[in-house]
Write a structure and sequence with these properties.
Layout: H1 6-9, E1 15-19, H2 26-36, H3 59-62, E2 84-94, E3 105-117, E4 123-134, E5 140-151
Antiparallel strand pairs: 1-3, 2-5, 3-4, 4-5
Domain FAS1-like dehydratase: 10-141
Organism: Allocatelliglobosispora scoriae
Protein name: FAS1-like dehydratase domain-containing protein
Length: 155
């Protein structure tokens, strides 16, 4: 039995956009750097730049509600019965430093959904998303290609 349904296939190409309600701010940069243990002096001072992955944490500026699992970040909330969700990884491209005065907008696009089978014969659905981050001037800041895996159970 296939996990990949027509309803899932119809999700490919879906997009959502989140825009922060204000500038990122020096305090947010400093707090994030402290939280991840980053001591680079570029993250503090009068004109700090953000640690690269700060903008990839959509929940830090999008104001999204928590889902049933307590997660407050972006999600497609795909219903694939009999599977559990695991992270497949992220590939980041950073195009320019993010400044405290940047107002962030991220556009998430569901780029692909494919079905595969593990070496052990377990079915899985692989979901590939692309998040594109820009500032209020439309300057490209970063691109995050994220892979999520909905892993079925062995039969």
């Amino acid at each position: 039995m296939s996990l990949l349904t027509d309803e899932l296939r119809a999700q490919v190409g879906r997009e959502v956009v989140y825009t922060a309600p204000e500038e990122l701010g020096a305090a947010a940069i400093r707090y994030f750097a402290q939280a991840i243990g980053a001591v680079n002096p570029a993250y503090t001072g009068s004109d700090p730049v953000a640690p690269p992955t700060l903008i990839c944490e959509t929940n830090s500026y999008a104001g999204l509600p928590r889902d049933a699992d307590g997660y407050a970040g972006h999600g497609w909330h795909l219903d694939i019965p009999g599977t559990r969700l695991i992270r497949g990884g992220n590939a980041y491209e950073f195009h320019q430093p993010v400044r405290a005065t940047d107002v962030l907008t991220v556009q998430w696009r569901l780029a692909a959904i494919t079905e595969r089978v593990t070496g052990g014969g377990v079915p899985m659905v692989v979901v590939t998303s692309v998040a594109t981050y820009v500032n209020q001037h439309g300057d490209l800041l970063a691109v995050n290609t994220e892979t999520l895996i909905h892993l079925g159970s062995a039969s």
